[in-house]
Amino acid sequence: MKMASFHSIHGSGTTHQARPITPSELRSEFSHHDSTVARINNGTFGCCPSSIISAQQRHQPLFLRQPDYYYFNSLKPSILESRRIIQSLINADYVDEVSIVDGVTTAAAIVLQHYTWSFFSSAFKPGDAAIILNHSYSAVKKAVQAYISRAGGHVIEVPIPFPVKSDDEIILEFRNSLQVAKANGLKIILAVIDHITSMPSVIIPVKELVKMCRDEGVDRIFVDGAQAIGNVEIDVKEIGADYYSSNLHKWLFCPPASAFLYCKMSDEFSDLHHLVISHEYGNGLAMESGWVGTRDYSAQLVLPEVMEFVSRFDGGIEGIMRRNHKKVVEMAEMLSEAWETELGAPPDMCSSMVMVGMPACLGIKSDEDAMKLRTHLRERFGIEVYNRVEDYQRLRDAVNKLVKDGFTCSLLPN
């Protein structure tokens, strides 16, 4: 399955040939970035081109100008258009399976809230368990602990090795954890699986793990794809999970904060509700998410302009993903050679982000050391369309200077 193009999404039947973006236009699109900083960690907060910021700013006054008209006539159709674009990008069967929320953390909480209520309604019993990866994103991991543990459930962490050499290592550890849980008499009601782990950054074999969960009788599966859309291909039907969520503001050029939550049609579909209950309660999660009170929804409405933006690049979003992956591997190999270290995962397990080992002489001996050094340098990095080779050469040279000056983490203040 290929990601939908701008033409097929809008389905006008006319040929739309976007004008290719020029190098000077590309620089202008990101001229609001701080030029004194080599911005090489796009995966943290993403990026938003100037043309998309302008599109958002065109939406914002419409509500202020005439809020009643905007609410009753414009907002719902605009959100529906964005949902249809997402539906096509992820190959969902129905637009009602797609809700727009403000982030994956919110999406995870919506799903976890449902499971908390299931404990109280006796659908599940104390002692049932959720399974997650040890490298799951901290906010989602804490949400699982908060919702499942407080309801009386267990949380099982799968010990994914790092550095990792192959998908088989991940699959083996996941299978072992499922088997240990079964041997201990635990019923696993929910699996939370990252599509791309954040730290360390590794593409997880989600299709294989989802199938394993199905074979082992896991009740439901949520895939945290926070870093995925615009970074790797997403086909929710091929993946086969019950829930899938990804941030639109990380690798798909939307303003913060915007994300989608896909919920596969099922018997319990109508039991899912947004965390904020408002006027649309009971009309389906997509409608509930489309109005959670008076706030700025403009970040959710610029998907048409985003698709126009990416269509100006050779190959569209697929071309961007291919070039980003190729370039980030090149930069990672340049850095690992300069520092005489290794990559944290093989290139085929990297997306547009990669992990590179730092020189051992820097004395990074613990998570605390790594976090202190992280305030000065970042060891995970990614590549987006605005990055240049010089950005990574600056990182290489900065680390080499630390090594030359005899710096170690022990010199950093507590």
TrEMBL record:
Keywords assigned: Pyridoxal phosphate
Region (Disordered): 1-21
Chloroplast as UniProt keyword: no
Keyword NAD: no
Pfam families, per the entry: Aminotran_5 (PF00266)
Domain Aminotransferase class V residues, every copy: 81-344
Name of this chain's protein: Probable L-cysteine desulfhydrase, chloroplastic
Organism: Olea europaea subsp. europaea
Organismal lineage: Eukaryota, Viridiplantae, Streptophyta, Embryophyta, Tracheophyta
